[in-house]
Amino acid sequence: MADIVDSNTAPRTPVTADTTPSPANPTTPPQTHTWNDANAQNQTPVVRKVAGTDRFSVDDERRIMKQQYIRVAEETQGHYLVGMDPEEFMQTFLPWNADTPAAYRTKSIPEERLRDLHSMASKKPEKAMYGAFTAALQGWPIEKKEEANGANVIVTKFGEYRKPDGECRNLAVDMGHYTEDNLPAKNATVHRLMETNVEFKPSASYDPFVDPPETTTAGAPIGNSDAVSEVEEDNVNYDSFADAAAGAPSLSQPSSGYSSPSISTGAAVSSSAESAVLDVPITANDWPGESKLVHGKETRGQIASYAGITMFLSYRKHFMSVVVFGTYARLIFWDRRGAVVSRRFNYQTGGGDEILFKFYLRFSQLTSEQRGYDPTVVEVPPTDPDAEAALVQFKKYDRDMWHCNAQMRSCTEAMGVTLPEDRFLRMTVKFGNSAERSFIVPAPVFEDTCISPFSRSTRRSLAYDCAFTSNPGKDCQQSKKSKHDSLLFMKDYWREESLRTRPEAEIYDILAEKKVPHVATMVVGGDVEGMRTKTHEPRLQLRSAYPPTIRKYFRLENPLQCHRLFLDTIARDLSAFGNCKVLVNCIADAMEAAQCAFDLARILHRDISSGNIMITPTHEGLLIDWDLCLVLDFEGHTHRPGRTGTWQFMSINLLQGGIDKRSVVHTLDDDRESAFWVLVYVALRYLKHDMPSNDLYDRLLLLFDHHTVDAFGRQTGGHQKTLELPICAEDSCDLAKFNVPGFNDLLADLAGVLVVRYKQPSSSVTSRYEARLAAGGDAVADHPVEIYKARLERRANPRWLYETLRHHASLIPLPAQPSPPLTEDASTRKAKRRLEEETRGQIASYAGITMFLSYRKHFMSVVVFGTYARLIFWDRRGAVVSRRFNYQTGGGDEILFKFYLRFSQLTSEQRGYDPTVVEVPPTDPDAEAALVQFKKYDRDMWHCNAQMRSCTEAMGVTLPEDRFLRMTVKFGNSAERSFIVPAPVFEDTCISPFSRSTRRSLAYDCAFTSNPGKDCQQSKKSKHDSLLFMKDYWREESLRTRPEAEIYDILAEKKVPHVATMVVGGDVEGMRTKTHEPRLQLRSAYPPTIRKYFRLENPLQCHRLFLDTIARDLSAFGNCKVLVNCIADAMEAAQCAFDLARILHRDISSGNIMITPTHEGLLIDWDLCLVLDFEGHTHRPGRTGTWQFMSINLLQGGIDKRSVVHTLDDDRESAFWVLVYVALRYLKHDMPSNDLYDRLLLLFDHHTVDAFGRQTGGHQKTLQLPYCAKDSCRLAKFLVPGFNDLLTDLAGLLLVGYEEPSAKAFERYEARLAKWGEVDEEDPVSIYKAQLERRANPRWLYETLRHHASLIPLPAQPSPPLTEDASSRKAKRRLEEVTSHTITYDFHENILLSAKVENGTKRLKTISLKHMNERLEGMGAPSFNSRPAEDKEPESKRLKLDESDES
After folding, report:
1. Are 1147 and 1215 in contact (CB under 8 A)?
2. Lowest mean pLDDT among 229-233, 539-543, 1167-1171
3. Comparison of pLDDT for 940 and 1200, the residue scoring more
4. What is the CA angle 1326-1329-1335, rounded to 5?
5. What's this model's pTM, rounded to 2 decimal places?
6. For 1228, which of 215, 628, 1279, 1405 could close a Cys bridge (C-beta 3.0–4.6 Å)?
């Protein structure tokens, strides 16, 4: 069985009304073109949303909650109406009820409560704000019901319910607001009980929204207090610069809203700055009212997620919340259509400090329906007769089946979600003229898709018809008794209320009238009265604050209406099929339903997906979810051109029709092709085949999830499907060889018929064949033209698909045992495997992080699971795990006590601590002296990583404040030395426990503390005086390798250039792993065929070096010339090491080429190098290096790794890929940022793994290298003069190692040479020979690099020295470039449109105030008024772009 865990988590909600970005890509603007076809109606374009694609996505990265927040923020763009006055907000959404007494309405606010609220902003850290807020508002407006004085008021409580909500993936809101009757137990967060919530953030930079231009606050400029509006017509489009710290490209993100927080530069525009007019029109990146700052975006996604979860779990039509950031706050009204956000207000100033009290005063007198609760749904106690009867019926099915999802149990377990115990709700519904009906349904459970607040929010579950409680066993006419007696299938969702769409209940009536087979019968259904969104109502008023060109980006058009159905058939997810025959027959049944609906009722389903084909208890297929269907007119044209469906299963035609979505018409052929991709998807994930699990992950990702987004937000996909479909038509075994007899023939047959839509024989093949027939030749059955005609003829039969499926299903043999009934637990072994792998990975990560941060050679831990436990010993070589023991039984219950009894008497060294490393107090003289030296460099530079600051910010890691360690080392016969180093900080790579665990940092030589300023002989005074470069890692202890310290001695002896000089270094005594010792004993329990897979061979030894040169990461290059020269220097070092010392580096990578303070290159990390014997052969054949930069030869030599010999040519090619990698990520070029992510992923990370674990890669490099050799602009057109020529030159030289002209080309060359005596220089053979001749020179690479570097012009200003903050460019760009552009202002002279750091040079673009107002006046927008210079804000109060990390 394919080893991929199913990520199905919830009923799918595949499509929403507007285009939003995917998680792997940055936010994209909406379409700016208009369509004036009067007959055209709103399309339902396919987009990749949380609610629609996550269920079928194999990308587990989407499960990371912080990434989900960003994704939710991106996909909800355009759904916010920002800027409503708080008083108007409360009047609109929290009106006074008629029975609310005047005394209650005018209740005064005690002064002490106001003082507590005023003090909140000064509280640090964020958690301290909770207490001040609680002190101010706890017990407001009343503490007891008796205080209401006749008012119908609920008593509410605030609380720091920070214990995570176990029912919601352990999420926790900062402050919950609950009624007195529904307080959570044990301070836990319970989203379903929450009335409102409050999210706190420490500063105004976390404001998720931006007020519209004309909105002002007292004492504040236009927009936010430190903000002004952008110019609607002007746009500064930053180029995409990725941040290397996270190991993947940081894609450019959207700007926020029409009005954005202004980040002043601190210094005004210089007098020499010219007033610049920008002609680039504004793009739809500017979403009205939405902050573009990283913190703001994360906050917006976070509060939106909380609102979505609460509305989903508690059947609400709307929800209200508060967000507090610094001294400001906002009120928010959420429903399924959008959110209305109040203007931000200062809760410390007069008037603003009363708003929160007024909000909760009004809120407490609202009815439950006014607070958003569905009046038709109430919770029932377990003792209710209907609930007891329902429980009896529900227990006939597995718990996961209660929500009609075969994967519910595995999904919730994998996410750490606790299913609520036997909670039931009563639904009382009345649709139209029908009688009132009552049903019992299980309470909703958290699903991965429910975090999206603006969605259809589909819920599915079993439903018990209460009419059966009083009439058990009778044929109740009231309930139209279904085949499942009292149990029905309930579906509840929000549909768009539009004249252009038909409610799904009507569709089911039509299908029943036309007797369409394999469709459930609706018992009752329709719109739920009173459950209608209303955020669209203030849309016209609020969006009027924006210019006309901006207003069109608001998405809140038609309201949404809650729609509820009760169907007569209980069915289960398609993935619960018992055998392959059932799977194929079920899809055939569903497609027969789709065909009959089209033929009999003129209804096109338009959303054939794995989630919409269900299996009945009799193992028949059922086609559900007709909510996106289309009723065709009499001519057969669709009413709404556009793409609709679930992304993973859409046809190639629809996926690639994204260049002009409205030109694509969804037809029945697209639904048929979707059924094919459903079959492939389910088969790859659940049937047995020969594809390795690691390769399967990549194949699924490329085949079903991959997509690209252009600069205008148009999404296209299906590229891998386009490649696979013709291959599958010829031989489906090329896709995967399935172990089910006859299944590959089915795939090939289906693909052959489908491919004729996209591919036909070429005109030359067709004309030759027709000429042959015309000449009297016989038709050839297997000729491509005849095959094409036969397939076309089959395709003309409208029943071809389900007839073909059934024919092949009849040929598939039944398994030895029949399929299990659906009432059994079909939650699979994949769920268990996922849990096991996640648990093992979790405890391994904890061990790795602990050993890294505390300089330990080993670590011990305990893992408890159920009634069992294990003891684990970790070191850098491996882990020794005890046999599991039951801690409840005799003997086993004493083990944990014995463990801690023994552990407590161990010495620190026995507990794993490095005896040579101890922490020193800040007052230690050496620590004080070290701090003085360290402060000469940026904090991120202390760990010798140019990206440390941006990396740690992105991961939410706080750098420790001035913690230092003393290292006392003694290597061999040398004297004992003492150094001060900064304490390690968390890095993304440290979570792996079994690694070399490399640490790099500055190191202070303590010999200088007692001899300041003197030439201390003891320290071999380096060029950096007392500061050195420390490297600490674990090396394999083997006779085949040489310690790196010895290598540095050899390099120094041979005077190899561009290599640091080692001051002191060697193995650290006593720091050696020992998990290899019990290997022979423990592995003897396994058969010989298994023993060879144990990897614990040689021990690892801690190795430590102190070098004389402080250098910085290659990505900190100042300009392109420096970059190229640094790589040239590094490759000269590699060449000289090879020539002079017979040392082959074998790990040329971006991380191993450093930049010195003088901007020279330095080649480091010689720990994987190899000393060659006198014949030049390596001692260890095989592949070595960093995967991303390895040569094509090494990457594709993985079929037999030991047959590959790493040579100097491989190192040279690695240098080329380093140059390409750094250039794509940090230089300016024309590749869109979304496409850049995919290109980097495929070019540097993609790999395949066969069944034996052998990895190969470099497939994309093999394709790109020839293109680059001809014209590197085909890779990317770089904006640096001469750089593309460099890439083309290098690629051409490298290509001759893989390609040579054909034999015919050589023959033509020799013939021309013999005839004319000379040959054109452009002849391929001439070029090939010239390149070979150049490659014969061992210095060709670095000489070529230096030659082209000399042709690259210098920037206007020189590169900054590395002691300046060279990381700020990337660190700030990570924070700023998510905005695409930053708008700031200067009222006195000019309006600053952008401040951009480029190659170390700050470039300012300004537009004069006069010109700004002229352009605003032309758009009908309010103009800016200048103010006197003396009214200008003091310099000290303005943020500085070059110094603020939150810019």
Report:
1. no
2. 229-233
3. 940
4. 140
5. 0.59
6. 1279
